[in-house]
Specification:
disordered C terminus; two-stranded parallel sheet; 5 helices; two-stranded antiparallel sheet; about 180 residues; Butyryl-Coa Dehydrogenase, subunit A, domain 1; disordered N terminus
């Protein structure tokens, strides 16, 4: 049930030293791209491709899904190394990395839903509670939340907000983040 999708590369055998070396090898390219990433306020497609190619986005993902399943310290070490090239990429990678770790704590059914078809699926959300509040809306629920804005293309987005007992689950992602304070 919980095997990587066909065609997805497994990083289950990767060593910690190799993952850090891969992060270090990206620093020159990240440094070169940093200004453009900041100006566009996104994780550049070529940077995301590098992170997927090296498996760094899967450092905390369980091995059974093709991830590296490193200890939690990898969250800090890999993010810090990437930040040597581009602070925004380091911050973004850290935010994305933590969600693989968080999903590993969920029931197996949730993991299957998120990773079953695509073990490289990105998961975005805010990571500090409480983040927002919910209210009733005509089409379901409406939430106000300060979710992390690390990537405009996550396959999965977690919204953590207190809401009333009314049913509903729709939400809208609003871009209000300015990473350089502008």
């Amino acid at each position: 049930m919980n095997a990587p999708a066909r065609g997805a590369r497994s990083f289950a055998g990767a060593s910690y030293a190799q993952a850090l070396a891969d992060a270090q090898s990206l620093v020159p390219a990240l440094r070169e791209r940093a200004g453009r990433a900041e100006d566009l306020r996104v994780l550049l497609p070529e940077t995301l491709a590098d992170l997927h190619r090296t498996g760094l986005m899967r450092a905390l993902q369980p091995r059974r899904w093709g991830g590296m399943e490193f200890d939690f310290v990898a969250y800090v070490d890999i993010s810090a190394e990437l930040a040597r090239g581009c602070a925004s990429t380091g911050w973004t990678a850290g935010n994305l990395l933590i969600h693989h770790w968080m999903l590993a704590l969920f029931d197996e059914r949730a993991q299957q839903e998120a990773w079953g078809a695509n073990p490289e699926a990105l998961i975005a959300s805010g990571i500090a509670y409480p983040q927002g509040s919910g209210r009733a809306a005509p089409a379901g629920g409406a939430a106000t939340s300060t979710a992390s804005a690390q990537n405009e293309r996550p396959e999965w987005r977690g919204v953590i907000a207190a809401r009333s007992q009314q049913k509903g689950g729709n939400y809208e992602a609003c871009d209000r983040m300015q990473s350089r304070g502008g």
